[in-house]
């Protein structure tokens, strides 16, 4: 059996499963010391440290002159990518942009009858840093990560967007990442990765500017570095291993569901793949399909370990219990493959992204439809949201009190200040009395 079949004994079964899945987050304790030394080293000597670490881990002959990818290299990369692939990237980018345009918020101001005006300004941050993983040896470029991080920042109105990505062994960057950058109009791309790239974005070096927000996925070193610099800069989120929950009834195609579960399992040995179904025949069929399809996957070892360690199939009595299970698990990705899927959607409270119906496998959202694929993991969908335009904006309150407002309320304001033992606050308000 490729993954665990769980007998349902009430909602306690799902709570136990959720508790197990929450343990997937690799502990950062083993790398915190290393990451702290990297952050301190970059903060102290800047580019020198970036070159040292890049030579050690990525490219032996790396130099400071190679940090910034030249405009010529970006142009050459663009020419290297086929017209057909460029068209696909361009169309995906257009879909992502159209979706995120709808997320834009407007500043607002509301006048009161006494002449006081209250409001809120929605402003973009000035500089954003985007971390784009290079993929295995630079041969599996995460094009979608470039699109999903850069486009919301552009829609937000960020003036300066800096992308960092690990170089390949020869010091170059995969042409597909550079081609995507050119399609988006990004001019500042740096061949630097891991925790030292995050440090450079947070503190700035001679070559890399310090930014206001850092976004983008990465390994445990990148994630730990983001957590440690949070507060110096804003970050998008602390993400854990990927996960999917598929909620299905007897109308679903077991071959499709198995393929969908495996689409997450191949990400990472710690990815979680869970099927919650109201139909026992379906769960049996999906288990058989998992075994069959797993054997032919190029990443069969990774996907197999994911399924064995973190995969689960559970049959529940009905849709009510299935929805309750989903809300407890609070998955990053949720597929709902049941008759009348839209009727079920209203009960979902906790999910990073929801994929409705038999024709919406998770990769549709990962790559092409438009919604962001940078999503909360590890149950944090209970309180967190996808990366969005909001990630790159800030909200500033505006208060303009009228003479009438001050006259009517100054004594109340002063009283509240004195209740908190802040006499200067009280006197500041009272100084406006006529």
Radius of gyration: 25 Å
Mean of all residue-level pLDDT scores: 95
* Span of the ends, CA to CA: 82 Å
- Strand order in the sheet with the most strands: 1-11-10-9-12-13
Strand content: 15-25%
Q: Would you tell me the structural class of the helices and strands?
A: alpha/beta
Largest sheet: 6 strands, parallel
Tertiary shape: globular
Would you kindly provide a written description of the structure presented here, covering whatever features stand out?
α5 packs across α7. The chain folds into 3 domains: 4-25 and 240-369, Rossmann fold (3-Layer(aba) Sandwich); 29-235, 3-Layer(aba) Sandwich (Rossmann fold); 402-430, no CATH class. It is built from 17 helices and 14 strands. With 434 residues, it is an alpha/beta fold. It has helices at 11-22, 29-45, 47-57, 71-80, 83-101, 143-156, 175-184, 194-203, 220-229, 254-265, 280-294, 300-310, 319-329, 341-345, 362-367, 403-419, 423-430; strands at residues 4-6, 108-111, 117-124, 127-131, 160-165, 188-191, 213-215, 234-235, 243-248, 272-277, 311-315, 333-337, 353-356, 393-400. The mean pLDDT is 95. The protein has a 6-stranded parallel sheet with strand order 1-11-10-9-12-13, sandwiched between helices. It has a 5-stranded parallel sheet with strand order 6-5-4-7-8, sandwiched between helices. The radius of gyration is 25 Å and the shape is globular.
Keywords, separated by commas or semicolons:
Rossmann fold, 17 helices, alpha/beta, 434 residues, single chain, six-stranded parallel sheet
Helix and strand topology:
Elements: E1 4-6, H1 11-22, H2 29-45, H3 47-57, H4 71-80, H5 83-101, E2 108-111, E3 117-124, E4 127-131, H6 143-156, E5 160-165, H7 175-184, E6 188-191, H8 194-203, E7 213-215, H9 220-229, E8 234-235, E9 243-248, H10 254-265, E10 272-277, H11 280-294, H12 300-310, E11 311-315, H13 319-329, E12 333-337, H14 341-345, E13 353-356, H15 362-367, E14 393-400, H16 403-419, H17 423-430
Parallel strand pairs: 1-11, 4-5, 4-7, 5-6, 7-8, 9-10, 9-12, 10-11, 12-13
Antiparallel strand pairs: 2-3, 3-14
